[in-house]
Amino acid sequence: MRIETGIYIGKEQSAADGWKILLEQEKTPFRITTKPDCPVIVCERDTPPWMEEYLKAGGVMIVTGAQPASLCFPVQYVGDASLEEVDLADFDRGKARVQSICSIFDGKGRGKLTLHEKRLPKFDMHPDEFPVVLFEKIGDGGCWYTGVPMSALISVLGDTLRQTDSFSDFSERVVSVDKHHLLHVMRCLLVDAFTRQGLPYVHLGYYPDQYQSLFAFRVDVDGIYGENLELLSKAGKENGIPISFYVNQKMCEPEAEWLNKIDPFHDIGNHGVLHNLYTSLEDNRRNVGQCRDWMNTKGIENGPWYVAPRGMWNFNLHRALAEEGYEFTSDFGFCIFGLPFYPYFNGERMQALQIPINPFSTERAYAKAEEENGQLPTAPFVADYFIKSVEEQYTQGMPIILYSHPQRFGPLSSQVFPQLKARVDSLNIWQTTLPEIYTWWSQRDAVQYSAEWTRDKLQIQGDIPEHMQVKTILGVGSAARGCAG
User: I need a surface site. Which of 25, 168, 205, 292 has the fewest CB within 10 A?
Assistant: First the structure.
């Protein structure tokens, strides 16, 4: 049997964009289909007219953003709810922000959502708690379904001030939806769907060779602060940590001569002329293009790499980057943590790669402490935070991309980097840079292959480049826990 995921797209072209993003991240064989011709089919909201026939014949379907009328079997529909969070502990994740209108279904399932958010229980009563996802067996097949519009949420705009991680109270102005957690759940459901078919789940490894994760460090140069920039550059080189620096023109102009002291060991990209996001395409183009031109006139070696000021992002910025020939951006106003991906707009893939990042910075931690009259961050505090993030992301098999600025981190970097480097060295991590991540991911994205399961044997056809591996998961109950592989 051909191992392939089908994406069914209904009336809303953009609804399935999140499924496209996930399947491209995974590099698992998939295609758009209007027929019941794949062992697993995914969709958002709209379902095919042949759904019941497909399931009875043994197909497995995953429906996100499910509506009662779109399902071919009876459900216990509770109603629609406006929810801020869902609990994904059943998928080895914690609470995830969804900030969305969701259809609520009762029954046995995984995950937990509650209609009465941020309330303390009384009398040991937990009214109106329901599963996030449910499974219905139909004939020889079955269907995972959830009223949370997971696929559509992957491409939504919007950011806010909120907590960003599971082990501290750090807050930053980041994307309003935990897209990385939703993509993880979607992947777990996909793995489980193939398991129920008695088929292996097949995907390309996320990293070269046998690495379990990657590590990169980024610095946004929102001002040079005298010798602080040079201290950062020196500490990075001395500790074998190549840094990707992103220069903002207006905030660096008063001390621009220091930019030439960034060691060639590191790389330099673009952080805009004005430290802000524009609404229009043309204004974004000018903000990108003029900063590049300014660096060129200053003799600053720089590449077609961008990160948005203040982490803010919109589709016109992404279009501007493509028109200016930029390869990637990294914006926590659109996504945090997780694997790189190419964004979609209304069913169409965009050109520049998006590289998610941990939004913690020493400077924001410092500002937060000042706002709350708390203890200011020290080198041990910053090192401890970075190492905890390394360990959490490594356990999940996800990329580790950290960042800060010269202002506060510069003077601390010579104390922090040795501890951080020692922990990274102790793990099976590819140590790299953002431009190298782009090169790897674009090569991986270009791979074409097919997978066939015949007589309990997997056959792969296609040209798999050196340092890339086809990985498989074959087990039982993969959706219940972390579904690593």
Answer: 168
Say how far apart CA 386 and CA 421 lie, in whole Å: 10
**How much is the pTM?**
0.95
Q: How far apart are CA 206 and CA 213, in angstroms?
A: 8
pLDDT tens per residue across span 232-266: 999 999 999 999 999 999 999 999 999 999 999 99
| Interstrand relation of 76-87 and 95-106 (parallel, antiparallel or unpaired) | antiparallel
CB 131 within 8 A of CB 103: no
- Interval 60-110: pLDDT, tens: 999 999 999 999 999 999 999 999 999 999 999 999 999 999 999 999 999
Where are the strands (E) in 272-327, listed by range?
Answer: none
Local structure of 177: helix, strand or coil: coil
163, 27 Cβ separation under 8 angstroms: no
430: Cβ–Cβ under 8 A, 6 or more apart, which residues?
207, 208, 209, 211, 213, 214, 215
Q: Rounded to the nearest 5°, which phi and psi values hold at 327?
A: -85, -35
